[in-house]
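ok so i was messing around last nite and threw this chain in just to see what happens. nothing serious, just curious
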Amino acid sequence: MTQPHAGRSTLGYCTVFKVHNPGLTNFFQLTQLSSYRKMGWKNLTNIAEFFLLGFSEQQEQQEVLFGLFLSLYLVTVAGNLLIILAVITDAQLHTPMYFFLANLSLADACFVSTTVPKMLANIWIQSQVISYSGCLLQLYFFMLFVMLEAFLLAVMAYDRYLAICHPLHYIMVMSPGLCVFLVSASWVVNALHSLLHTLLMNSLSFCADHVIPHFFCDINPLLSLSCTDPFINELVIFIVGGLAGLVCVLCLIISYTYIFSTILKIPSAQGKRKAFSTCSSHLSVVSLFFGTSFCVYFSPPSTRSAQKGTVASVMYTVVTPMLNPFIYSLRNQDMKSSLRKLIWVRKIPSP
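result:
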């Protein structure tokens, strides 16, 4: 196992005033920081690689983790690919809801492929190193697919709103052109959004402490390692990222407010169950994805720790994409029927 600090002698140390410091609040410290900036950073050395600490450095646990995450990864990719194939091959699933579901499955497969393969490779070759460019590339695709999933879940909530609250206008409003536009816009907007954060991260300088207490390059651990002031990065995260997240959450809340209101107005209990069954799978996925991600990024600072954050990140980066195909297949009769046709090989009767 490569030690995290083994390569520091060749990278050099830097004597700098640490900017990313939550305790930097009084006027004297801010004045001192301003004087440091005017003089310029001294002995600043850009690094060529980071070290991902992962979960454990013990060899016995490494073997268990490799087997566990390899199994989770294969199940996740296989499950989401089956969903995509089922939607493509079954004409009964050529509807807006399943079109969005196929794109969500594609995003899930790409999402988990952004982080897990690198972690598995590091465990296999017993190395914790990830290059600087590789880290930024991983950050870009991670942010792309995590926000893409949030956007797709919001679009699917709007689709369920139209299907339940305005069933007579559903086919006319949710046209193939609108479906393609909503998915394409989600891809383009989030690609640009991720590119913005990645370019801003690339403008920062990192030195000395280049150990990331995580199993992938997430934005918060990288900002905490910066030797230069990440104020612009944090401002963009707060404004742009916050606005994108707020749009998704508001779309979900408003859509389900109208959905529940419409379901409660249905007189028969059977009609209520039938209406709720059309959105129960989506609601389960939304609760799982947003619940786990909120626990990671919005937990109280007093309860945060590197180990807890790493374990919690596994829930929405690995476990959630793995469970999504099971939720949609087990709670959806049309999907179960299509998967049976896709998986089971019917015996040809002998003449």
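not much to say yet. The chain has a mean pLDDT of 83.
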